[in-house]
Amino acid sequence: MKLIESFKIDHLRLLPGLYLSRRDRMGDCVVS
């Protein structure tokens, strides 16, 4: 869970576009 939170912040700060792409890839896991 901690890893996911870190990734969320990193992606959002680095590139919101990448975060969206990754979110779709993982699916509900990232959304939740």
Spans of at least 5 consecutive residues with low confidence: none
Percentage beta strand: under 5%
Number of DSSP strands? 0
Order of helices and strands: HHH
Sheet/helix structural class? mainly alpha
Distance between the termini: 10 Å
Share of residues in helices:
over 70%
> What sort of overall outline do the alpha carbons produce when their principal axes are compared?
flat
Estimate nothing, just give the exact number of structural domains.
Answer: 1
Biggest β-sheet description? none
If you average the pLDDT, what whole number results? 54
Give me the Rg, rounded.
9 Å
Number of helices: 3
Task: Kindly list the characteristics that best describe this protein.
mainly alpha; 32 residues
